[in-house]
Amino acid sequence: MTTFDTLKNLNHPCIQRSAGELLLTLAKNAESRFEKVPEIMGVICAQLSIISQPRVRQQIINTVSLFISRPKYTDTVLSFLLCHPVPYNRHLAEVWRMLAVELPSTTWILWRLLKKLQKCHNEPAQEKMAYVAVAATDALYEVFLGNRLRAATFRLFPQLLMTLLIQIHHSIGLTMSDVDIPSGLYTEQEVSSEVTPLCFAMQATKALLLRTCCLQEFNIMEKNKGWALLGGKDCHLQGVFLLANALLERNRFLAQKVMYLLVPFLNRGNDKHKLTSAGFFVELLRSPVAKRLPSIYSVARFKDWLQDGNHLFRILGLRGLYNLVGHQEMREDIKSLLPYIVDSLRETEKKIVLSAIQILLQLVRTMDFTTLAAMMRTLFSLFGDVRPDVHRFSMTLFGAAIKSVKNPDKKSVEKQVLDSLVPLLLYSQDENDAVAEESRRVITICAQFLKWKLPQEVYSKDPWHIKPTEAGTICRFFEKKCKGKINILEQTLMYSKNPKLPIRRSAVLFVGLLSKYMDHNELRRMGTDRIEDDLRDLLCDPEPSLCIVTSQTLLLVQMARAEPKPKQRVNWLQKLMGRSSA
């Protein structure tokens, strides 16, 4: 302690230098006698702020380095250094940055610091974040900046990266008031409102990438707003996906090391720990190395996730399967999960449905007929879904399923194909161009299945209500082809209540056309009361174009009901629309 007191002698720099050298010599030669390391560290940290000579400061830091490099004292020194206010003042920051440790000890020190942070993640969720988690994160940041433990940083990169990403997830939305700060720690200063657990975790993660030469990965994150995504409450996983893909694209060796680390990592910690780990893991499965993983670590795990109560795990399970299905060797194992994937089509979460569709598109040609037929029934229920992407891709998969039906099974699905014709026809009039185009494409597939040659008018992009002649041609074709197979009029009438104006208007117009071209005796047998009632309800619609088309259709239905046979009329609908050439 006399030596420490001598360090305070600011008037005699030579004495101060001698004291520094003596302290370092004592630490080297009598380390077993230092039983009060915390007290010694306390004195060192207190004296550091009044020592201005660079050589003496380095001797003090070397003494700390000597203590921390001895396994006997590592945890003790770390615990003491972590019990200081964050962000660390410039003197403590210098200690972290300037640690002078021999190479064999660098990994040990960084590992022990990392374990203190990981321990916080593995414990049950607490009301407040442990202060040591924030302090250890800031310490890692300072260590990375100093770059004195560079070899260890490279060696422990997978563990460091994942632990910091998990710390980011735990820190989202927190302020320092949400941290369990030890009593009396901030006696001399208030915590700035700009200081948050998240900013420390972000700084450390960025510094880690830069110090391990992941410059391209850093740039990708910066250009694609990846840091903002990582720190967002609802978009954290998107940031994780972006970073994982960047690493896989730019540094496959490091990415593979991370992937192997994540196999046991996925079983630890709370949901935030598992979600961040799982998000990184599923993206890395695009790597060719992924097919070497035993299925128990991938496909079997995804089966559990698909049944998890947390929808995020179900999303990750499907995302992982999609990345795995790119490896031909894995497809047979994935096929065992087809019932779970098909069930995912009924989910309310858009991402889950779309992910399931993307996987099924890859597997549709290998499905057995029972699974294929069940899937087609579910897809049919998604026609007209309010989510345009779900609507469009459900039709895409439905078309792919029709193409995949083998000859012996075609008769069994013919009814499903016929039932899909009216919805596909009507949705070819959708206001969403992508949905309309896909409807026309899939109805072509249906026609090929049924061995029909569609009239060219089906492929027109013009709305039916401005091209009634084309609509009449389409109606005559389908009324003739579907006669005796499905009740096309009844099916069309259902769509007169569709929430989308173009679909309602097209359905009403088509009802009028069907009333003209179908057998009137059959129409009377079916009864027109319900049709007329439904149409009258639409006469009060605020959209003028729908009211006009409805009034014209209602007249056509009433005329068809009254007449024994349909009379031939020239340009009948043009006259009703006020477009006669007279």
UniProtKB/TrEMBL annotation:
Residue ranges occupied by any Maestro-like HEAT-repeats domain in the UniProt entry: 1-110
TM ranges: none
Domain Maestro/Maestro-like HEAT-repeats positions: 299-558
GO CC term (a single one): cytoplasm
InterPro entries: ARM-like, ARM-type_fold, HEAT_Maestro, Maestro-like_HEAT, Maestro_heat-like_prot
Key word Repeat present: yes
Pfam family, one: HEAT_MROH2B_C
Protein name (database record): Maestro heat like repeat family member 8
